[in-house]
Amino acid sequence: MNVAMNDAATMLRTLQRWRDAGWLRALDLALARFIHSLDPEAKPLLLLATALLAQLESAGHTCLRLDGLLGKELGSDLAWPVEAVRELNDVLDGALGEMSSPCVGHAEAGSTPLVLDGPRLYLRRYWMDEQSIAKSLLQRVRTLPQVQANAHDNAHHHAHQAQAVLQTLFDPTDAVDWQQVACGLALRRGLTLLTGGPGTGKTYTAARLLVLLQSLAEQPLRVALAAPTGKAAARLHQSIESALVKLSGLSGPAVHHLTEHLRPAQTLHSLLGVQPDSRRFVHDASQPLDVDVLIIDEASMVHLELMARVLEALPLTARLILLGDKDQLASVEAGSVLGDLCDHVPDRPYAPETCAWVQAATGQILPPQVRAGPTDTVSDLAQQVVMLRTSQRFGGAIAALAQAVNTGDAMAAWALLHAAGPTESREPGAPLALQQPQHAHALGELALHGRAGAPGGYRSFLSLLKAGPAYDGVDGTEGVEDRQAWIRQLLRSFESFRVLSALREGTWGVTGLNKVIEQALAHAGLIRPGSLGGGWYEGRPVMVTRNDPALGVFNGDVGIALRNPRGSGTDVDALLRVWFLDGEQLRSVAASRLAAVETAWAMTVHKSQGSEFSHTALVLPDHGSAVLTRELVYTGLTRARRAFTLIAPNPEVFTQALQRRTRRTSGLGAVLAATQGHP
């Protein structure tokens, strides 16, 4: 059935009705009305496309493909109910008019709010960010920071030197050492993308790459480490620092210089310099970052706009090393930069000249299956992408389950979970478990004690809290040091176990689970929720939900509220401070100053990216949802180091999640393919 949409007024009334039904947001409708106010002659189809574009942006897409408006594909992207998709298709069948409008530019410089680039409709700022990223990436993969393109002898000399250094950094192996390959390729160009699952050695490789670059540099390198969140930044710094310490026995000044001058890792926002109440940063093209090498970890979490700002602020003379897992969830905000870059790498990516360089610089001979043939399409970008495949963090059952989830093999995943046997008979150290409770309150026991085969839960953390520091005095050096050592131990203990949820709201979401866990811990006498007002109590774990550079806290930071031993009375500011741990560095903020925090006994899978826990419990809801995807399950699962528990009240939800892929509509891959692919 066609629903006639002959004029803008009828379309706007339809959009209002969809807003009232909850299918559209107020912002989506407002943008369509804004376009109509700028162009009263705008056709109904343009107003509809504008509202849909705004909603898709909120779901992480950067554009709307006009050639995909009809059909189930768009309905899936919108996550609308069946009746809404049916009505949308009816309206689209009857919509009249074209996309032409003074509000729509056609991929050229201008100031129109919308851009039409081929079949893709954009909000202008997202189109500009995609173009900017593509241009910068292509410049970097064609840049030779240390090896000059016209200096063959110099290139040969660097390759010979590189192989000599790498032989001291890596143990010999009969198989292809992809970590050495990554180091060799990074030496060749200004951009390197290193992807692989947890524990495959991305930061291990990055540390050795830094030693290689410093060994070949004529002067000390200015190195910056960064990640999207404070937790990920702290882990990056700790991993690089630990790796350098292990390399300290090597002769030569490179390792010593890096160890002595390694800057603390920062969040990307902190690195760029946040300007309060603004989308702008201190560092940009006019005031670039003062670095020679920038390493960004957890690159899958970096959204389109932030990546564009990083590339604008990074001078072309600097090397950019991106580390990340292409199979993890994409960023919360619009874009999927890492996924776009990796998805457009061919199966046989490496050109003959790349293979020759790798052999000269590393001694590694790339296998035939990754060598491009005479008729294969290769690209400059693909030459700088390396995938690591062997995990050192976990193996056995967890690794097998991750592989099954990553390939969407629900049958194999269920076989692994059921093969573990009932939780009550599990031996200590059992890596996998499946629980299928009918009520969320059953999670209270898991939160208290862990499970058979993986004891702990939050009781060990709270028992340590109750015991207090070894020395209960607060005056003098001894008391301060003992208390700080206790706080570090406390924060690390909390990181040993975590409940993750796919959803934010609802009984099985973060809000519901936090209430259940608080009730269970309170009933056991381990915490006193709300005892200090405003939801605060000693031992409350909180996650920062908004960047606050003035306080030195950033979105995703997790801390623990502890009593101030010098505090008195009932004032929360005097009684409680929230403590955070970055590597070995402690910092604290008065609880009353943290306006944007939420309790973090349970957290979303998205917020857990960049973290790892000895035992991870992933909670799925009892009903399906568009956010439940293969990537979400994989990301939650791979937060676990030693034990993983799946909480699945409805088994079908797990199976459905493995069948659904995260798909972000974007033009970045197409832009790169159009400008760099060649046979």
Can you offer a commentary on this structure?
This protein is an alpha/beta fold. Helices cover 42% and strands 14% of the residues. The protein contains 26 helices and 22 strands. A 6-stranded parallel β-sheet has the order 7-6-8-9-5-10. Strands 11-22-21-14-20 form a 5-stranded parallel β-sheet. The chain has a 5-stranded antiparallel β-sheet with strand order 18-17-16-15-19. Helix 7 runs antiparallel to helix 8 (178-188). The protein is globular and about 75 Å long. 47% of the residues are buried. Mean pLDDT is 84; it is low at 147-153 and 422-426.
What's a concise summary of this model?
The protein is built from 26 helices and 22 strands. The chain is an alpha/beta fold and 679 residues long.
* Number of E-type strands: 22
Provide the gyration radius in Å: 27 Å
Overall geometry = globular
Mean pLDDT reading: 84
Write the SSE topology.
Elements: H1 8-20, H2 26-38, H3 44-58, E1 64-65, H4 72-78, H5 82-94, E2 104-105, E3 114-117, E4 120-123, H6 124-141, H7 152-169, H8 178-188, E5 191-196, H9 202-216, E6 223-227, H10 230-246, H11 253-261, E7 266-267, H12 268-272, E8 293-296, H13 304-313, E9 319-324, H14 337-343, H15 352-362, E10 385-388, H16 396-406, H17 410-419, E11 432-435, H18 443-449, E12 450-451, E13 454-455, H19 459-467, H20 476-494, E14 497-501, H21 510-523, E15 541-544, E16 558-563, H22 572-575, E17 576-582, E18 585-590, E19 597-599, E20 602-604, H23 605-608, E21 613-619, H24 630-637, E22 640-647, H25 651-659, H26 668-676
Parallel strand pairs: 2-3, 5-9, 5-10, 6-7, 6-8, 8-9, 11-22, 14-20, 14-21, 21-22
Antiparallel strand pairs: 1-4, 3-4, 12-13, 15-16, 15-19, 16-17, 17-18
Helix pairs in contact: 1-2, 1-3, 2-3, 6-13, 6-26, 7-8, 7-9, 7-15, 8-9, 8-15, 9-10, 9-11, 16-17, 16-24, 18-21, 19-20, 24-25
